[in-house]
């Protein structure tokens, strides 16, 4: 899955737009879903952010099928082929347009909350959405930008169907898209979290567009750790790829142990990490094995080996500037959960809390009886086999423990809202138990 959520998509899209930094740019997000993406672009370009309000004109009997779009300043784009094939009369089209025009004006007033529209005359307008399906809305947005006097229009999206540029041809001066996967059915297909963006979130993004940003890059081991960067994790004589995120005034650190067949790039673990970061917790995602080691599948299931790597990574993490004294927790998924529990059973680990998502704690075997850290086991309600294994493991854990079942979730938590539920359970567990152990950790 290419993107964790709209923030992740926005950060990656911003990386492709750095050539515009320093120019007279205005970033325009398409409400609602395009605005969180546009916010990340605006922060990267140090440019003002505004909404560009357009409304899709849906076929009367199938509203999801767009037959055109309208925008501010009377812009109107009609897909004559869709109108003809769907048999929509001129009267029906007018009725849809009148209804959507009222909503368009309402949203423009609500989103800007009294603030004037950012002037586009003579400037470069960067139109951003969370993706393109038919292209009619994006085309209308570009036309609106031109109608408002933009000298140049750039259309930038994280994902679009193959051949999308033909649908947009002539609407923008520059077209940028990160992914054009096939088959393409819907934009949400390519996001781990594609939950609806509220009006309040749009307003908050517009207010937050002026927030300062901090540029970071990987640093040497004796320098302050980066806020959000790729790092090299020392594990004995090996160097493993990792990603370290350290929010300002972090209250604790969570080290991730991914499951078999995954890596530090696991979209689900990255999503959970983002939720923890928003709660003020630092995270380290790293590869448990080198590329050479991964060739031998036996290593992927060698829980003792993986637990050893986790302990080595934890030792490396605790020696990084800015992390000293912070309590550490483990988050494990699938077989990585067994490694997390095995490592936590070692006294040297001094782990404050453990969370397992869809884990295989049974693979930790007799080591379960030595785990003293408060442990949360999260399992999908439809993951019947793993649920049974976790119930059995729960009885073997001697300390504080809990089993949380997410209704409607299967093993990978792919169902809408289930990964978010699991992430929030993990967040609450770590916030409670890392905070309670912070004074003890600080005295170490």
The residue-averaged pLDDT reads 87
How do the SSEs run, as a string of H and E?
HEHEEEEHHEHEHEHEEEHEHHHEHEEHEH
The portion of residues forming beta strands comes to 15-25%
For the secondary structure, the number of strands is: 16
Q: Give the strand order, joined by hyphens, for the main sheet.
A: 9-10-12-11-13-14-15-16
Helix content: 25-40%
**Computed structural class:** alpha/beta
Global geometry: elongated
What does the main sheet amount to? Answer: 8 strands, mixed
Total number of domains = 2
Number of helices: 14
**Could you name the CATH class of the largest domain?**
Alpha Beta
N-to-C CA distance: 41 Å
Keywords summarizing the entry:
disordered C terminus, 444 residues, Rossmann fold, 37% helix, 8-stranded mixed sheet, 5-stranded parallel sheet, 21% strand, single chain, alpha/beta
Topology:
Layout: H1 6-15, E1 25-29, H2 34-45, E2 49-51, E3 54-59, E4 62-71, E5 76-78, H3 80-86, H4 90-112, E6 124-128, H5 136-147, E7 152-159, H6 164-168, E8 174-179, H7 199-208, E9 228-235, E10 238-245, E11 253-257, H8 267-278, E12 282-286, H9 291-294, H10 297-300, H11 303-318, E13 328-333, H12 335-344, E14 353-357, E15 375-380, H13 384-396, E16 401-406, H14 418-442
Parallel strand pairs: 1-2, 1-6, 6-7, 7-8, 11-12, 11-13, 13-14, 14-15, 15-16
Antiparallel strand pairs: 3-4, 4-5, 9-10, 10-12
Helix pairs in contact: 1-2, 4-7, 8-14, 11-12
């Amino acid at each position: 899955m290419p993107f964790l959520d709209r923030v992740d998509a926005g950060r990656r899209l911003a990386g492709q737009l750095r050539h515009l930094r320093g120019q007279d740019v205005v970033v325009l997000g398409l409400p609602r879903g395009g605005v969180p993406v546009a916010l990340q672009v605006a922060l990267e370009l140090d440019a003002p952010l505004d909404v560009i309000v357009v409304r899709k004109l849906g076929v009367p009997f199938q509203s999801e099928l767009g037959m055109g779009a309208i925008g501010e300043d009377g812009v109107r784009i009609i897909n004559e082929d869709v109108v003809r094939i769907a048999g929509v009369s001129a009267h029906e089209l007018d009725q849809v347009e009148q209804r959507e025009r009222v909503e368009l004006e309402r949203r423009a007033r609500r989103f800007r909350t009294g603030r004037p529209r950012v002037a586009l005359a003579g400037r470069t307008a960067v139109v951003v959405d969370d993706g393109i399906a038919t292209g009619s809305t994006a085309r209308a947005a570009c036309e609106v930008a031109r109608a408002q006097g933009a000298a140049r229009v750039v259309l930038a999206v994280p994902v679009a169907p193959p051949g999308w540029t033909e649908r947009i041809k002539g609407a923008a001066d520059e077209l940028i898209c990160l992914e054009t996967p096939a088959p393409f059915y819907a934009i949400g297909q390519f996001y781990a979290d594609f939950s609806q963006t509220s009006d309040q979130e749009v307003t908050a993004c517009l207010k937050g567009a002026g927030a300062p940003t901090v540029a970071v890059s990987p640093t040497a081991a004796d320098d302050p750790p980066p806020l959000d960067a790729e790092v090299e994790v020392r594990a004995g004589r090996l160097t493993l790829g990792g990603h370290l995120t350290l929010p300002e005034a972090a209250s604790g650190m969570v080290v991730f142990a991914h499951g078999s067949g995954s890596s530090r790039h696991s979209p689900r673990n990255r999503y959970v990490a983002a939720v923890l970061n928003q709660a003020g917790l630092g995270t380290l995602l790293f590869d448990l094995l080198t590329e050479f080691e991964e060739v031998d599948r036996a290593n992927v299931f060698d829980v003792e080996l993986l637990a050893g790597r986790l302990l080595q990574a934890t030792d490396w993490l605790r020696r990084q500037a800015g992390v000293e004294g912070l309590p550490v927790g483990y988050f494990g998924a699938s077989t990585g959960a067994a490694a997390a529990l095995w490592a936590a059973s070692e006294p040297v680990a001094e782990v404050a809390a453990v969370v397992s998502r869809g884990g295989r704690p049974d693979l930790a075997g007799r080591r379960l009886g030595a785990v003293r850290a408060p442990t949360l086991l999260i399992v999908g309600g439809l993951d019947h086999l793993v649920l049974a294994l976790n119930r059995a493991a729960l009885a073997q854990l001697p300390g504080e423990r809990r089993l949380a079942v997410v209704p409607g979730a299967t093993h990978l938590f792919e169902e809408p809202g289930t990964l978010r539920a699991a992430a929030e359970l993990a967040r609450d567990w770590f916030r409670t138990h890392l905070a309670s152990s912070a004074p003890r950790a600080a005295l170490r």
